[in-house]
Design a protein that fits this description.
The complex is a heterodimer of chains A (323) and B (401).
Chain A: H1 2-15, E1 23-28, E2 33-38, E3 43-49, E4 54-59, E5 65-70, E6 75-80, E7 85-91, E8 96-101, E9 107-112, E10 117-122, E11 127-133, E12 138-143, E13 149-154, E14 159-164, E15 169-175, E16 180-185, E17 191-196, E18 201-206, E19 211-217, E20 233-235, E21 241-245, E22 251-256, E23 262-267, E24 272-277, E25 283-288, E26 293-298, E27 303-309, E28 314-320
Chain B: H1 2-9, E1 16-17, H2 19-27, E2 36-45, H3 65-79, E3 84-93, H4 99-109, E4 114-118, H5 121-128, E5 137-140, E6 157-159, H6 164-178, E7 182-187, H7 191-206, E8 210-216, H8 223-234, E9 242-246, E10 266-268, E11 273-274, H9 286-297, H10 303-322, H11 327-334, E12 341-342, E13 348-349, E14 362-366, E15 369-374
Parallel strand pairs in B: 2-3, 2-4, 4-5, 5-6, 7-8, 7-9, 9-10
Antiparallel strand pairs in B: 1-2, 11-14, 12-13, 14-15
Helix pairs in contact in B: 1-3, 3-10, 6-7, 10-11
The chains are: A mainly beta (323), B alpha/beta (401).
Amino acid sequence: MRLGFLCALALAIAASGPAHAHLLYVTNEKDDTVSIIDTKTLEVVDTISVGERPRGITLSKDKTKLYVCASDSDTVQVLDIKTNKVLHELPSGEDPEQFALHPDGRLLFIANEDDAVTTIVDTQTRTVVAQIDVGVEPEGMAVSPDGKWAITTSETTNMAHWIDVAERKLVHNSLVDQRPRHAEFDPDGKRLWISSEIGGTVTVFDVDSKKEIKKISFTLPGISQDRVQPVGIRLTRDGSLAFVALGPSNHVAVVDAKTYEIKDYLLVGRRVWHMVLTPEEDLLFTTNGVSGDVSVVDVKDLKVIKTIKVGRYPWGAEILPTN
Amino acid sequence: MSSGAQARAGGMYLVRRALMACAWLALLACPVRAEVEVEILYLEHQRAQPPTLSNLDAPPSDDGLQGARLGIADNATTGQFLKQNYALREVIVTPENDFLARAKQALAEKAAPFIIVNAPAQDVLALADLPETKDALIFNAGAPDTRLRQNDCRANVLHTLPSRAMLADALMQFLTKKRWTNIMLIEGPGDGDKAFGAALRNSAEKFRASITADKSWTLKADMRRNAGAEVPALTQDADYDVVLVSDEAGDFGQYILYNTWLARPVAGSQGLMPLGWHRAVEQWGAVQLQNRFKEAAKRDMRARDYAAWAAVRSIGEAVARQNTGDPKAIVSYVKSPDFKLALFKGRALDYRSWNGQLRQPIPLVHTGALVALAPMEGFLHQTSDLDTLGIDGPETKCKMN
């Protein structure tokens, strides 16, 4: 079995050609650390200490800094990727969980889970620009590629809140299924994807009309429907595939993003939260909270090729490209 | 910022659609949604606390009420985006006063289509049988009596607090899984103690555990001085894997721990406890609820708080989805198969059609940690494994009409 796995791994690596050596950063929620993985060797190369309960993580536009939500420290930390040291902290409001960087590279939109607000922070002046009231337990955060819309999902209110970025105002609310956790725009900004963890669905909205165009359900043979809990969503750049992490069902759904048909379910580690793609989109990495590891998916073959042990409760993931 | 939400929750009256306002607003081409105002009546009959040997953990006087208040705040935060407002009318009756008389008076002052009741079983029944509550939706958030879900069920009552049968089944599944199936049961003298003792016996039979020693607590000594001498004597004449105690008032149960003749774990009302909610529940995003509650109530959230909160959230969820405060529409939606609620127990929850009990996982906790969440893996059911806890459809004696 193990030999078979190694063979498969060797073949998969051979088949996918020379993998690029990017760095993958994974936040370990219950270790207060970030694991750094070389995406070529698929080994952990470093583990760095950050603030308490790190969750969301995202790269600055100039690719020199990483922003990390340190939820229990009530701050967003700015890491220098050269030294892996915390440069400074940003005011974030209480309990920042997820955030999204505006395409201008300057404004950071933060969901403050304990406070029912979305905080907008200017990363240059390091000041809070605005706080906007949203529903109970805001979590998912996304900014549209054109920078016009910021979306916050609130888990107990069961809504996606549409914030007009220019006006800094909440202008629309869309009810979705229970416990919406993540928001993701299409690369072209035409559609918005929202996952509902307890509702077990992903709702897709047309951004122009803000109307629901599709609700995707997931059924895995032999797995109780209760355990199918969509969380993280990632789309390929060409908008052809969507990956949906299904939490305690321990699977990632592969969805045809045009027809909304489910192409496959991939078995990964336990309680899969979030995912990130390499710039070449040859590999997808998933954070598996309960098993404390990262699964590596070959995107072309849709096969899991390796599991990498990281810290306790890995949650967020971000890639630093080397080219 | 959450105080703003609470302020928005205050000062609104009675369920009604503001039809006039709506017509007026329509002229101005404003939002399509009508304004909905929902008032929930919270009725509590406080229970006299029996004297206990120790007062280390006296129950708070606002057990249940704080949960209802938090539910209102949660609903109101959501409601602000939908033009739906919520208010709680609190009527609290002290132990020596007549609950039913006060309840009638409250209903005469103003009709109440949505009621949360935190009171002993006989008060719940008396309230549910009033002509004034015939079409109301009553949530029982205070009485764990299994009979309210069986022969004494009522069509206008839903139960957010788990029954003693559910709690006993949750514990028994865990014991079965651990193979601690030879049980010494020590039952206290209170009515609740006897009812929970009976639930444990039923459950032992259901899951094929055996009660090898069945004892009543009769010792009158002050256990703070004598536990070391009395409890070994009480527990030395049998063989057992585990000692179950039924002492709902917390009189003697905590003195059984570490004083048994054999080195055995203690479970039930003390030791490892099956509870509807406990501060040790942190999974499934529950930390957020715990934090929110603690900030508002200045104490930890308890099972009755959770039950009252779940009741208010049930109404809030129905009002948000249906965009109406019309009692008939809300009642039928809450009871329909479409109704699903996220309640921080890891899955969507709803109400059993045969007796109105909220299906829910039961945490098994000790004072410092969550040990397991029942139903335990491996206890299967043809429709929902949650129905392995408590009264299942085929066993129901409930006739709703």
